[in-house]
Amino acid sequence: MTKQIRRWLLAQLPKWVHKGWITAETADEMRHAYQDKPQPKGPSITRVLILCIGLGLLALGVVLLFAGYWYQFSPNGRFDWTILLDMLALVVLALAIWKADARSAYAEGAAIFYMLAIAGGLLLLKNTYYTGEPYGIYVLLMVVLSLPAAYLLSSPIAMMGCLLELAWWSLSPQAITFWGGPIPAGLLYAGTIPFYLWQWKYHNQMRKRMIWLSWMYMVSLFSVFFFALAGYRAAFHLFFLTALGVGTFGIGTMLHRAAIWTLPFRIIGSIALLYTVVYGTLLGTWQQERTTYVGFLVTLFVGLFLLAVFYVLWHLLRNKKYVEALVSLGAPVIAICTLLAHVGMNVFTITLLFNLYVVILAGVLLVGGTTGGHVGRINSGIVLLLLVVATRFIDPSFTFIERGLSFVFAGLAILIVNGLYMWNKHVNKYSHYRSRLKKQDKEKADEEVL
Amino acid sequence: MKRYYKWICLIILSVCVFVAPFLVQQRYTGILTGGQEYQLPVSLQRVDSWVPSDYLTVRFLGCQAPWTGETPPVIDSEMYVVVQPQQTGLLKIVRAQQAKPDQGLYILAKATAYANGLVEFTLPFDRVKVNINKVNPAFYQNYKGLLLATIKLKDGRGVITGVYSKGIPIESAVPETMEQQVEDSRIPISDIGSTQPIVTVTPNSGAGQTSSVTNP
Questions:
Q1: What are the residue ranges spanned by the domains of chain B?
Q2: Cβ of A129 and B9 within 8 Å?
Q3: Phi/psi class of residue B116: alpha, beta or left (left: φ > 0; alpha: ψ in -120 to 50)?
């Protein structure tokens, strides 16, 4: 229950008692149950943000004072200044651990300062001891040094920063070494999960931060997953991505009534599924899939992911969410298509099969949406069909003439259908207006006769 | 004990925070102290920055090599360039490949283009620290003469220790005349070092320990 609803309810209680709908005892019990919970100590988040702007300006001023002379310091001098910045960050962190309450505005502010100082220090050192390396190793250090601070201060904002850094690391160009590869990225992501489960207990006190946290978790999860797929150039990569999309979409769908912070699960999962639709309809995807090697590990992971997908499907069917189950069926369909690509089936046939699934799904969404009055489903159906058409714009498997004519005809069809609809509506409206006028005239004539 | 776990964690974190800068520093100084010194032909540029800087951007010349691999290189990703030091200290680019070479000298580079079995690349270490006030601006304004950079290499990573014109450090060198520059620019990159004066360095020597000699 939100703060606004709680306040409205408390304000209504005297009126309800006066009208005799509830007894005074019941009102007292309700008042006790729904009274405003004590707010955490310290200033509000808005106040902290304004203070942060002030501090930010102050920091920028200091940066400007240093900027003009930074390169006049020797590398060792710059190193010393960086150490000083790190010390300042640690002092702020220690003060926050000592004095600030968990998740309070002070704790969040201290965590932000600590993370910025550590990241800034490392970037300054990268510039001083320049080897031209990509950001990967430095971002890895940032995440490793920031993650404990997020836990120590129980700071969702610091954790969001860590997750963003993790996404940055995953998507930044770097050599795939053991320390710069998907395994440490996955381990670090795994290290963030207990924090989410821990914050779950306090979701009533921090609804907005929980939603943002969910967004960051999803963005980071898919970034790390992309990193792993691209890093290992794995076979069945489209299937793995779809399976993850189905998993997050399924969790979001099953829990959406329970909590609003599961919204990012659904949305990011849906985006992953739309990505699958785009790439699944391209011939090149299946041609490339054929060149990959399917080893034991890949087979094992495909099996495990399929099990997870079928578990989600079973849950959706049990809850009578048939349309969502059809959406989730995309993962097994992709698995079958990938298998067919590896056994040597014509890629055109595979694309056709996948397109068939997408068209059926779009049809079900459109029909189900229209009959059930779900505008979201109608829009999803339209988006799916549009994506299938729009993907052809960049599909090199067709000539420019074929693609150009397809788009021209599709565009003309939409214009003609809509034009006819509008013209028909106009004619109906005009005839309706005329018949109404006639009816009024007739009524007038009848009145005059009477 | 439970009361102090946060402070114990903070102490461990503080150690990590202080170790991290030394780790970054050591990666750089490790190349400088443990790396072998070689030379490559370069050109210089000065990139405007919002703060006054103490370095010039270095562009290595002749950054292309035959690609040895079953599949073409992934553009914008890292790969290994196998190089062979010549007697003069100049590096000869031999080939480029995706896998790390088991032996020999190599540099980590970024593939930028691929065509007809040749891959073009850039080397990541593209800065040389100089006193810009002492460098003649002609050197970084479309200079066509021969400039050689001394680089230290270790485990595929490198650092530029200096740039020289006719064996003289760039900060005290005088630009060649336009005629000499045009003449220099006509020398094929593969022939540099065989007919021109170059910098000679002893292994593990620091920047500046150079002398100008003419190759036979």
A1: 1-34, 36-214
A2: no
A3: left
**Does A175 contact B108 at a Cβ distance shorter than 8 Å?**
yes
B51 and A70 within 8 Å at the Cβ level: the answer is yes
A119 touches chain B (CB under 8 A): no
CB-CB: which of B9, B12, B52 is closest to A71?
B52
The string of pLDDT tens digits covering residues B166-180 is: 889 999 988 888 888
pTM: 0.72
The count of other CB atoms within 10 Å of the CB of residue B23 is 12
Angle ∠(A316,A320,A326) on CA atoms, nearest 5 = 55
Closest to A148 (Cβ–Cβ): which among B9, B25, B123? B9
Q: How many domains is chain A built from?
A: 3
What average pLDDT does range A340-361 have in this prediction? Answer: 86
Query: Could you give the CA distance from residue B160 to residue B126 in angstroms, rounded to a whole number?
Result: 7
Does any CB of chain A come closer than 8 Å to the CB of residue B58?
A: no
At A133-179, the pLDDT tens digits run 877 788 889 999 999 999 998 888 889 999 998 888 887 766 555 56
Q: Does A71 touch chain B if contact means CB atoms closer than 8 Å?
A: yes
- B53/A71 Cβ within 8 A: yes
Cβ–Cβ contact A70 with B under 8 A? yes
User: So what's the ipTM on this one?
Assistant: 0.81
Segments forming the whole domain that contains residue A19: 3-33
pLDDT of residue A37: 61
Which residues does chain A have within 8 Å of residue B5's beta carbon, measured at their own beta carbons? none
Position with higher pLDDT, B51 vs A301 = A301
Strands across the sheet containing B105-115: B64-66, B118-122, B105-115, B78-85, B91-97
The alpha carbon of residue A384 is apart from the nearest alpha carbon of chain B, in Å, by: 31
Residue A402 domain flag: no
If asked whether residues A204 and A252 sit together in one domain, one would say: no
Last residue in a domain, options A215, A232, A249: A232
**HSE (CB half, 13 Å, CA atoms) of A135?**
16
From the list A366, A281, A352, the residue with the least C-alpha distance to A323 is A366
Bridge partners (DSSP) listed for residue A216: none
Confidence band, pLDDT 50/70/90 cuts, at residue A257: low
Which of A62, A91, A101, A130 is the best residue to mutate to test the B interface, defined by the most B CB atoms within 10 Å of its own CB? A130
Pick from A75, A72, A115: which is nearest to A93 by CA?
A115
Contact residues on chain B for A122, CB-CB shorter than 8 A:
20-21, 24
Residue A66 in any domain: the answer is no
**Angle, CA of A166, A172 and A177, to the nearest 5°:** 85
Considering only the beta carbons, identify the residue of B13, B51, B108 that sits closest to A67.
Answer: B51
Strand B36-45: give its sheet, edge to edge: B127-129, B55-60, B36-45, B147-154, B157-165, B168-169
Q: How far apart are CA A241 and CA A361, in angstroms?
A: 19
Interface test with B, best of A118, A127, A129 (most B CBs within 10 A): A129
Helix H or strand E encompassing B182: helix B178-185
